[in-house]
Amino acid sequence: MSHSGSKSAASSPKTANSRVVAAKIIASILNNHGSLSTLFSGNELHTLSPVDRAFSKELCFGVMRHYFQLENIADQLLKKPLREKDYDIYALLLIGTYQILHMRTADHAAVSETVNATKILKKKWATGLVNASLRNLLRNTSKMVSRANNSEEARYNFPQWLIESFKKSWPQDWEQIISASNQRAPMVLRINKRLTSIEEYGKLLEQEEIDSQPHPIATDGIVLSKPVPVTTLPGFDDGLVSVQDGAAQLTAELLKIEPEMRVLDCCAAPGGKTCHILERYDIDLIAIELDPARADMIEENLERLGLGAQVITADACAKDEWWDSRKFERILLDTPCSGTGVIRRHPDIKVLRTQNEINQLQQLQIKLLDSMWELLADNGILIYATCSVLPQENSMLIKQWLKTRRDAKHIPIDASWGKPQEYGRQILPGDSANMDDSHSGAGMDGFFYAKICKHN
Most buried among 216, 274, 352, 381, using CB within 10 Å? Predict the structure, then answer.
């Protein structure tokens, strides 16, 4: 089914039914009305009990992770496509199919509870359709899955345009990129060096019977053997620790900051890298973010961690509106990107992102590079970062941009992590998973870094 519609999912009274809430969220995504992150914060999810809320989120994440297989099977089950205003019913069909194929839900419960959800949505006409479809799937599971596997999209659970892009860019690694991107991401912590140490915090986790080990690459990182609610992390509210993947934690070290330097974090929300820099260094830091709501998140993180920075809500490229003409010795440009390196954390990217957006993002990335370069002091360093694995946003873009700048020098990053590129260094999803067996899958998110120095 196409997911380019414009109508919203049908509304219904507030309900504590986890499948109905999940169906509304999924239908909104199929209608391009938000992402999992935005919909989780603004949906009826909060009307559910903690257990039902967790189940509803699991349904949403699971359907997005397996979307292309589920879509193929749902389309086999339907005689004709559903209308856009009935995407909530289509979402329920995906949810029922996901439970049957990938969850431990008893088959009869997967069918009966999904059918019941159609009644709560006040679409009784769909009761027979969903019931017959899911029972058909139960009778013909292996045949339908086999038929779906004839499609590369369904077999790999990735859109064809991204599969082709990975094949072209990473001929030796594309299957591993897809496999790692379809896994559940590990929970990685970053300790606040001003308040604790890896050893001290490890003991606190041990006291709470939370199994962990130091991150093999990120020196301030701790990997948990299984995710836990942040509310159960000792000292979280007191600023002892934050949640941040190991790949994102590499930024602070790459900047090579010295005392009293003036530092700019551009496109800074939600503030993880800003806070990590301030946990390590006593500096004058400005964090700039375009989105007011996301800028608020930076402020909240700074407050929780007991840190201070000047947070500016503005368009970074419109420097006349916010810049005081004093140049920065270090600039972190964590630019908007396709997010193709963090699909394991945001599986809805596979459904929402389009090939046309990549060209638009490249134009924005070049514009931001040009703007930030003007703010960098002589002999200053700019770190260009993305959570993408597409070279056209990363090494190829830096190569293209450097041709336009005679005062820019690329500095190769010498590190034990990632893959060296002609320009910059690329971490692929799941890289550096040299953990023990209980932490398998603890490799890093996909990330790209390039280091550029300004010289006369």
Answer: 274
